[in-house]
Amino acid sequence: MLPKLPDIVGAAGDTIRTNFPSDRVGEMIDLAQRVDTGSITQVVLGPSKYAFHPPNSETDGIYTLRLKMDKLAELSIQIFGDKSAYAASQ
What we know:
The chain is mainly alpha-helical. The chain has helices spanning about 5-15, 25-35, 55-60, 70-80, and strands at about 50, 65. It has a two-stranded antiparallel ribbon with strand order 1-2.
């Protein structure tokens, strides 16, 4: 994985935009390496269950994936319970 990091960073740079300060990326990498991965729940927010593709006419032909916020709220409550920001609205 580590040898592919430059390619991954390059691909991300072509597709992801953020206002996160680039001089703090090292801090985030250090923090990520200290996380207990056994306590992490991974979910793919992909098409059909958690996201959808709007018609091309709405996006000028650009590939777009939009989250289904109601499904995301349900997932948040499932994972975080009453600590979810969506729990109070249910």
